[in-house]
Design a protein that fits this description.
Keywords (chain A): Membrane, Transmembrane, Transmembrane helix
Transmembrane segments (chain A): 38-55
Oligomer: heterodimer
Transmembrane segments (chain B): 31-52
Structural class of chain B: alpha+beta
Number of helices of chain A: 2
Bound molecules: FE2/S2 (inorganic) cluster
InterPro entries (chain B): Rieske_2Fe-2S, Rieske_2Fe-2S_sf, Rieske_Fe-S_prot, TAT_signal
Number of domains of chain A: 1
Largest sheet of chain B: 4 strands, antiparallel
GO molecular function (chain B): 2 iron, 2 sulfur cluster binding; metal ion binding; monooxygenase activity; oxidoreductase activity, acting on paired donors, with incorporation or reduction of molecular oxygen
Order of helices and strands of chain B: HHEEEEEEEEEE
Distance between the termini of chain A: 19 Å
Helix content of chain B: 10-25%
Chain lengths: 69, 174
């Protein structure tokens, strides 16, 4: 599949997971399962560097593409 | 860096101002992706306080005993009536309901949907939230109708020397 599309979709997935994890985090927090809440918080935190990485990679790839043309 | 500054306009690479002025109405693919990354950042930052408070609770869990607090005198509450009180803190609204001669139930009265104050409707035998008409079961505090999904936190009470006291907030059993 086209790399641009892959990058784009992985970013969308990141954001979707962000929403899911946030929702779960708040609920587990309210249910007083604090350890699970912390786990979701950490998951949310690592999604950001992943998203950033995908974005940077996309930037690099499109640069390469441009040079090849 | 200096090279970057000499170019006018220099290439900006930030995650918030990613639409260029001269085609203001255009959000290209790259700009949109940047927004997505920015949103992921916002999610990350905003989940920090939850994690921090959760960690704090986790460490101080053992000392979660509050001083017992007198709610009301026994003879002041008729059967089927409810009394508002504050427990455990000054800002935590709670609701005590006398169901029968012996039976008292008490709940934290902040609705588990969006924190509106839940009140007791004697005629219907239900606790009702005015905001979105959530209903809670009196016996258990569990939601029976409307948007709330989580039971109201139960407050343990005991009757002593002709008065009702709040003892502790029960933990949810998972
Ligand atoms: S706040 Fe109680 S039902 Fe929405």
């Amino acid at each position: 599949m086209n790399r641009r599309l892959v990058n784009f979709i992985s970013l969308l997935i990141c954001l979707f997971l962000n929403i899911v994890f946030t929702q779960k985090m708040v609920h587990q927090f309210k249910f007083e399962n604090y350890d699970v809440a912390i786990m979701y918080c950490v998951l949310n935190l690592i999604l950001f560097p992943i998203a950033l990485f995908v974005f940077k990679r996309d930037e690099k790839q499109s640069e390469v593409n441009r040079r090849e043309q | 860096m200096s090279e970057k500054n000499n170019r006018i306009p220099f290439d900006e690479n930030n995650y918030t101002h990613n639409i260029h002025r001269n085609n203001e109405r255009k959000l290209d693919r790259r700009g949109f992706m940047k927004t997505l990354v920015g949103a992921a950042g916002v999610f990350a930052v905003s989940s920090l306080p939850w994690g921090a408070v959760a960690a704090k609770e986790l460490m101080g869990l053992s000392e979660k005993e509050y001083p017992h607090k007198k709610i009301a005198d026994l003879n002041k509450i008729g059967i089927g009536e409810a009394v508002d009180f504050k427990f455990p803190g000054e800002h935590d609204d709670a609701l005590l309901i006398r169901l029968s001669e012996e039976k008292f139930v008490a709940y934290n009265s902040a609705c588990t949907h969006l924190q509106c104050p839940v009140f007791w409707v004697k005629e219907e035998g239900e606790m009702i939230c005015p905001c979105h008409h959530g209903k809670f079961d009196v016996e258990s505090g569990s939601p029976v109708a409307g948007p709330p999904r989580r039971p109201l936190p139960t407050i343990e009470v005991k009757v002593e020397n002709g008065a009702v006291y709040a003892v502790r907030v029960k933990r949810y059993e998972s």
